[in-house]
Fold this sequence. Notes:
Elements: E1 2-6, E2 19-23, E3 33-43, H1 45-51, E4 62-63, E5 68-75, E6 87-90, E7 93-95, H2 101-104, E8 115-116, E9 128-132, E10 137-138, H3 145-148, H4 154-165, E11 173-176, H5 180-192, E12 198-201, H6 205-213, E13 218-220, E14 230-235, H7 241-249, E15 250-258, H8 276-280, E16 285-288, H9 294-306, E17 313-317, H10 321-329, E18 336-340
Helix pairs in contact: 4-5, 4-9
Bound molecules: zinc ion (2 copies).
Amino acid sequence: MKAMVLNRVSYFERNSQPLELTDMLLPVAGEKEILVKVTRCGVCHTEIDEIEGRTAPPHLPIVLGHQIIGRVERTGSRAERFDLGERVGIAWINSACGKCKFCLEGKENLCAQFTATGRDSNGGYAEYTVVSEDFAYRIPDIFSDSEAAPLLCAGAIGYRSLRLTGLQDGENIGLTGFGASGHLVLKILRYKYPNSRVFVFSRTTVEREFARELGAFWTGDTEDEPPEKLTAIIDTTPAWKPVVKALRSLEKGGRLVINAIRKEERDKESLFEIDYPRDLWMEKEIKSVANITRKDVEEFLALAAEIPIKPEIQEYALDEANKALLELKEKKIRGAKILRSQ
Ligand SMILES: [Zn+2]
Ligand SMILES: [Zn+2]
């Protein structure tokens, strides 16, 4: 099978073609696993963090990609959940121990043995992949393969971030950074929190216009001050400056939820701008989001079908993965980027 493979960690500035088109052996499904013929795989900012080493895969080479849609091609001898040919999705959570305190509480995202698709095991930048049947999802019929793919990461993690804000309908919320996750969260907000005002902070005019089209109450640059204080803010940027600015925009007792696996180092000195009484005192909170649970994915897919949420998408051929990643890094195009494997 064909796959776009990461062989070594490097910076895009020095190597604009970090993934290599490679012929690989077809993976074999274990007893409780399914072999999935991949049709689409979403492109996520996390892949850039993996390529550049901020969340480096523990072993190389590796096939990236964790927003996978495909059809069940083969089932392991004890795999019974899905029929051959059935459409399935695979998300960031690839496995967890199932026995530890966190797993038993439904917080499998915090399990010490949590493994991630496309980081700890081969993912979806390929024609086929394998996964435990317990970590695959049925996809509501309403979605095309391309529409469903970005829901599996950007959407599901956005859903978890929103849950972690503890927002009540009518309270102001900010979104700083407005990529694939932000635009899906804004759609959930308009549906589930119709009385809340949404404030979107983005560095690009294209994203700000997009946010207004989707019903944002106010939009501005990540450095701008909003006209009202915000009860909650979700940060999806890779930088530190927006974190400092977000703390300043929070209402007393407000919560900043940081939805990022890693932050880039280049503007870390911005943190020295935090003024405790102004930016953190009065019971302001900072909380991060780590991974997703299967429940997040299942609940979000059902909600997305109900609303319905149809993500804005842009498709690329599998062998154009480097181009898609570079454009994502350079924030060239709005909406979610999807690779076509078939
Ligand atoms: Zn992702
Ligand atoms: Zn566990």
